[in-house]
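Incident review: delayed structure delivery

Summary: a single-chain prediction request sat in the queue longer than the usual turnaround. Root cause was a stuck worker, restarted by the on-call engineer. No data loss occurred. The affected request and its eventual output are reproduced below so the record is complete for anyone auditing the incident later.

Affected input:
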Amino acid sequence: MKKKILSVLGTRPEAIKMAPLILEIAKHPDCFDNIVCVTAQHREMLDQVLDIFNIIPDYDLNIMQPKQTLSGVMGEILSGLDSVIAKSRPDIILVHGDTITSFAAALSAFFHQIPVGHVEACLRSGNKLSPFPEEMARTLTGSIADLHFAPTKLNAENLYKSGITKNVYITGNTVIDALLSIVRDGYSFKNNDLCGIDFQTKKTILITIHRRENLGEPMKNILTAIKRLALKYENDIRFIYPVHKNPVVAECAAKILGGLGNVYLIGPLDVEDMHNLINISYFVITDSGGLQEEAPALGKPVLVCRTETERPEAVDAGTVKIVWADEENIYNEAVSLLENTDEYKRMSRAVNPYGDGRASKRIVEILAAADQAKYVYIPKENPFLEIIADINRDIDAKIEDAQNFGKLRDKEMHRQFSLYEAEIQKKDIVIDELRRNNAALISTHQDTLSSKKFRLAHMIALTAKNPLKIFLWPMWIFKLLTR
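Output delivered after worker restart:
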């Protein structure tokens, strides 16, 4: 019996990464009913991706509104999916990544008691406010999901650490599938602003800055650094910035970078133009999540203008560097890549950690239950966890050593104290003996003194009776003093 698979997506990044999987599912009509629902959390940018991959949705909630809020988007999706699920009756619902669409679709599936498959599961930055709201959207989606398709081992470990240990699979990232199907040599750009550029004459640096957490002062710092770079390399480097539709972003970009001859402020690009522009760029300056995966796959260094990333694998591999929203740091790291050939080679030749372009095939195999065991995550075979275990054992050993040392120290202190007490007791005995001896001497002295006082009184009495006795006094005094 065929499985009904409902894929729900709503933004441009989701469409890029879900398109290869939807197309792979469509290759197996005997196994699956392939149903696609778009929420249109993004509208124009979403439609561009669907057109390029020739995907026609079965359901379109069309929720996008001017100045829409996160809670408004959430409510519209939950309401719209009720009827979609009632009509399509899926066996499983697939969601992707960390958007409000993903979280809302997973929550709706839970309300209808339908299993959820989470594509690009388990990424974590460790900071619930960065990226916002994506970090919590992905975490909450993961807590609902029944099947977890992790791009890397590190992502799978994140789930295990959170207590989710069943149905965790390592598949690679579907964005590499999409990228490899789109990028090609000799590509001709469709965007009018790009068509007239001779990319052979200058190096190109691609810029994408748009995240909520960078709005305001952080964005000013980032764009000011880029302005300084543009002025320094006015005749040598071209900067291309496809500006996000957010009016706050567009206004800031125009104010700081507008009027610079070697900076091209253009509109958003479709996925085909964007991926091919990455391919011919020298490196990328971005705060995007997806570009941290896409650019390394094409051998392009990435400077990430954020404080942390939920994709640390690329940082560990050396192809991505976190430069924060710090003007001086961004400027200095960009200059280093432009002027230090060894540094550029080191970053551009780093191994891409996100897969081989076969993630969609692996996920379809798992959905078909054909070969699930091949991709299941087994933590005991993971050297990372073994290293952690070794570290924990080493820490435990050091704690035990410290405790033993403490016991020995306490024992030695007790021995020293006992010796000290014994010395005090000896001194007390000596003092007592001295006191007794002194008391005896005092007593003897007192007795002698009393005796002499008595003799003196007797001498006085005798003399009083017989005054002639006065002549005996020298002899009596001598005897009294010499006794």
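Verification: Residues 385-472 form one domain.
Action items: add queue-age alerting; document worker restart procedure.
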